[in-house]
Amino acid sequence: xxxxxxxxxxxxxxxxxxxxxxxxxxxxxxxxxxxxxxxxxxxxxxxxxxxxxxxxxxxxxxxxxxxxxxxxxxxxxxxxxxxxxxxxxxxxxxxxxxxxxxxxxxxxxxxxxxxxxxxxxxxxxxxxxxxxxxxxxxxxxxxxxxxxxxxxxxxxxxxxxxxxxxxxxxxxxxxxxxxxxxxx
Length: 184
Description:
With 184 residues, the protein is an alpha/beta fold. The protein is 35% helix and 15% strand.
């Protein structure tokens, strides 16, 4: 990590099922071994959490300061009495857990983009497409607009900012139709 520090580069580890770092607990263990180095970051991909049945929204609450990139990828998990998380080594189309095009799976992207905006996330949001059904050209075209439509431009004021302003009594009386002998 020293060389990354010298170059000013963050290293974002993708939390991924079946790998050494696959959830928040294993990331914390890894981070501890690195002395909680500030350049050790997370490449956040909610599709991996769907496949593992982890709470991907709460993950943002815990680790938002460490998220350096966001793979915008959808997934679905539909277990049966015959297969679950590991999907019986079936082809992608037949697995209980599989990747889908944006909006076709179970990921709550409105919730994710809202959480990230709440915490001031201002880094990458990159389409990662691996759908088991849809053609890649269609997935790319739809995915670009999907991401654009979900990015939240933060407001610079609260909806009720007017409440602290001094009231113009004359204007208020006019609006309410309260007139006294020609005097407003």
